[in-house]
Amino acid sequence: MKILLLISSNSHSIYKLLNQTLLRLGHNTKWVDPNAFNYSRHKLLFLYQLRKVHSKLANYYLINEQDKYRNLNILNEVKEYNPDIVLSYNESFLSPETVDEIKKISKFVIFLADNPFYSFYKRNFFQVTLNADLVITPDSGCLEQLQATGINNIIYGLLGVDKELFKKVQITSEQKKVYGADVFYLGSIHNVESWAYKRPLMLKTFTDYNLKIFGNRTWKSILPKFPELESHFTLLKKPMSFEELNLRMNCSKIYPVDAHPGIIKGLHARIFDAIAGNILPITEFREDINRVFKEVKPPVYSNFGEMKKHSDFFIKKNNERESLVKELNHYLFENYSSEKCITEIINKL
Questions:
Q1: For residue 93, is it left (φ>0), alpha (ψ between -120 and 50) or beta?
Q2: Pairwise CA distance, residues 260 & 249, whole Å
Q3: Whole-angstrom Cα distance, residue 90 to residue 78?
Q4: What pLDDT score does 264 carry?
Q5: Nearest alpha carbon to residue 144 among 336, 288, 254, 249
Q6: Beta bridge pairs of residue 6
Q7: Alpha helices by DSSP H, 150-241
Q8: Could you read off the pLDDT of 127-145 as tens digits, one per residue?
């Protein structure tokens, strides 16, 4: 089967998981990055220089021009490849009209990494979701919301864990010294909004431990409010490689996982990466934890006090932590391997 993966380069880990898994399952794939089509920036600069339009109008013009250009090029890619399935990770800047054209060529499937009702500045997200042949969400709360609007072609689905991306590896004492931490955290902050302060507020709980935080430039706008985190933070000038991330997780003890406010009942994907990468996630409670982890569960918290209590215990108790990670790892790969999860999704079509 030919499958076109419509995934932003900002979600490279998702592309790699899907692409590697689909190839192992015997499918042919092509990756199209909607962010690669950026046409009219020079027009905006030209308008600014001439000062003939207000900057807000110029910005609106730019957005519309980019959207049209992206949709045209994405549709051309679909026509050229002629796939059986187009799998879009979120709405990929598509318009409902473009989705209608895609559906004349192939099945259109959308995987909702975000909730269409909680995604600002994405004017077509919900309409594109309505137009899909199959909607997949890893959040049962989002599923319930969309079903309430009359969507029937929607399923609860996870992408699972790829055994080639994150796995237990043998580490040396030197690697442990360089890469190890009691608490390891990798995460970007995209907008300096009220909820963005939740992440550093959580992490300052761990400043008494060997805490290592890696993030993007937006962190620099927030760190002055949290000076106690400055010495623990490392700015990433480019995304951390999968190999380094896997190594750092294997060398460290716990990974605190905070839920995005747009996640209603679902689980953050980092929970699965962490377990596969041999580090214990301490995760903010969401109802789907009981749906996914029926036999064994990672420690969960409902407030930062509970998170600190769990973390204190598992940082100090190496045997208990390692035993739980081993049990979680076995359960995850038995029940939620990427091959198993993606095969179930394709079979729904």
A1: left
A2: 21
A3: 17
A4: 93
A5: 288
A6: 32, 88
A7: 173-179, 198-203, 219-222
A8: 999 999 999 999 999 999 9
Tallying the residues shown for the chain, one arrives at 349
- Cα gap 276→279, rounded to integer Å: 8
Structure tokens at 66: 């980019």
From residue 11, alpha-carbon distances to 16, 69, 120, 335 in Å are 9, 21, 18, 24
CA 146 – CA 76 distance, rounded (Å): 30
φ and ψ at 300, to 5 degrees? -120, 160
Q: Residue holding tokens 């879009």?
A: 88
Structure token digits, residue 55: 């900057």
Number of C-beta neighbours around residue 293 at 10 A: 20
Which has the minimum average pLDDT: 35-49, 110-124, 213-227, 292-306? 35-49
Greatest extent of the chain over all pairs of C-alpha atoms, in Å: 68
The CA R_g of the chain, rounded to the nearest whole Å, is 21
In which residue are the tokens 């962010």 written?
35
What are the pLDDT digits (tens) for 85-108?
Answer: 999 999 999 999 999 999 999 999
Do 125 and 145 touch, CB atoms closer than 8 A? no
Task: Identify the DSSP state of 85.
Answer: E
Indicate left, alpha or beta for 303 from its phi (over 0: left) and psi (-120 to 50: alpha).
beta
Q: Which tokens hold the place of 296?
A: 């064994």
Mean pLDDT of all residues in 73-92: 97
Q: CA 64: distance to chain centroid? A: 26
Mean predicted confidence (pLDDT) in 205-229: 95
Six-digit token string for 285: 């409670």
Separation of alpha carbons 266 and 138, rounded Å: 6
Which SS3 state, helix, strand or coil, does residue 9 take?
helix
What is the amino acid identity at position 99? V
Q: Supply φ then ψ for residue 127, to 5 degrees.
A: -65, -40
Give the model's confidence band at 254: pLDDT under 50 very low, under 70 low, under 90 confident, else very high: very high
Task: Check residue 45 and give its pLDDT.
Answer: 58
Is pLDDT at 192 greater than 90 in this prediction?
A: no
Question: What pLDDT, on the 0 to 100 scale, is given for residue 132?
Answer: 97
pLDDT the model gives residue 250: 98
